[in-house]
């Protein structure tokens, strides 16, 4: 128990002994043992009262608090309760106390810890309403079908150019070389474009990798005809719902006409959900692939070497990524979509 709780309990014990138990220690002990209090604790309280004739506890030794007063503690607590995003520096400036002092009070006295905010899409205009309605339709349309998503991403050729947090460890920074203290990055790093399709069951199509921009014709020839159609046929054409993102090349006339000719069920542009990376598991898959690729120390020598590495990274990412359809269902059921 806390100190204040101990003091209140001691008063209860003594009051019961003097007024209700007729100063009989045994009756007092029996009464408070029913509350789960140890026998030795009750006898200690009674013996201390007999010796001192007082219930007052000794004052806590040391200098009294000048900064962490109850008034300041209450002000800090209310400040972060009203605005959880307030920085420690700004809060310290408002209360006119040191930043380090407020940080100690916040953590040690109040148990308030800083936590990292999760990234979420920022919706503009009518995107929020459109996304929620479209995701519901996609979810219902895919209940009896296998969801297949496709997407493309840019991957830096040099693994060191992939954004990530890096640290260096030392006891004396002055003894660490400059190269170990900094992360060097090229201003305009060369990148490859990687496209692939992924199903809710973990199946992954052959990737298309190029160092050129992708057009509707390239997308149709290299991605749809050569890779997506064989991939869907392997699953079962009538059992698939194809969900492309809203990139312009994905909805070119030659692309949509070909999909209709092949009787491929796909999400039409006016029914697609804008800006919902949290519902598209392929976004998480890309992150895992890039994380795996960033572990390399040297870049590949050419495009063929990069393709080989990306195939290996895709296999590693497949083992730990979430099901695309399962993630969409989870987000929708928890109302985490916009």
From TrEMBL:
> Where does the UniProt annotation locate this protein?
Nucleus
Q: Which PANTHER family does the record associate with it?
A: HTH PSQ-TYPE DOMAIN-CONTAINING PROTEIN, TRANSPOSABLE ELEMENT TC3 TRANSPOSASE-LIKE PROTEIN
List the molecular function annotations (GO) for this entry. nucleic acid binding
Per its UniProt record, what Gene3D superfamilies does this chain match? Ribonuclease H-like superfamily/Ribonuclease H (3.30.420.10)
Q: How is this protein named in the record?
A: Transposase
Listed under GO cellular component are: nucleus
User: Which organism does this sequence originate in?
Assistant: Zophobas morio
């Amino acid at each position: 128990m806390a100190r204040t709780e101990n003091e209140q309990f001691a008063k209860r014990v003594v009051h019961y002994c003097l007024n209700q138990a007729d100063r009989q220690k045994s009756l007092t002990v029996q009464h408070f043992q029913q509350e789960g209090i140890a026998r030795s604790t009750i006898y200690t309280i009674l013996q201390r009262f007999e010796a001192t004739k007082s219930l007052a506890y000794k004052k806590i030794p040391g200098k009294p608090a000048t900064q962490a007063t109850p008034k300041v503690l209450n002000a800090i607590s209310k400040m972060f309760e009203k605005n959880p995003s307030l920085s420690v520096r700004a809060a310290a400036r408002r209360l006119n106390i040191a930043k380090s002092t407020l940080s100690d009070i916040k953590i040690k006295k109040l148990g308030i810890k800083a936590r990292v905010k999760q990234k979420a899409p920022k919706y503009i205009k009518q995107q929020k309403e459109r996304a929620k309605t479209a995701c519901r339709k996609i979810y219902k349309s895919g209940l009896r079908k296998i969801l297949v998503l496709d997407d493309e991403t840019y991957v830096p050729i040099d693994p060191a150019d992939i954004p990530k947090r890096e640290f260096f460890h030392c006891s004396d920074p002055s003894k660490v070389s400059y190269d170990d203290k900094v992360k060097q990055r090229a201003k305009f790093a060369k990148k490859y474009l990687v496209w692939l399709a992924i199903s809710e069951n973990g199946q992954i199509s052959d990737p298309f990798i190029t160092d050129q921009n992708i057009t509707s014709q390239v997308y149709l020839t290299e991605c749809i005809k050569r890779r997506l159609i064989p991939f869907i046929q392997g699953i079962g054409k009538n059992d698939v719902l194809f969900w492309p993102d809203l990139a312009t090349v994905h909805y070119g006339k030659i692309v949509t006409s070909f999909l209709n000719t092949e009787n491929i069920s796909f999400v039409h542009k006016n029914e697609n959900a804008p800006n919902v990376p949290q519902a598209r598991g392929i976004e998480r898959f890309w992150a895992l692939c890039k994380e795996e690729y960033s572990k390399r120390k040297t870049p590949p020598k050419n495009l063929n070497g990069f393709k080989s590495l990306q195939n290996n990274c895709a296999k590693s990412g497949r083992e730990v990524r979430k099901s695309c359809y399962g993630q969409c269902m989870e987000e929708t059921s928890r109302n985490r979509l916009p």
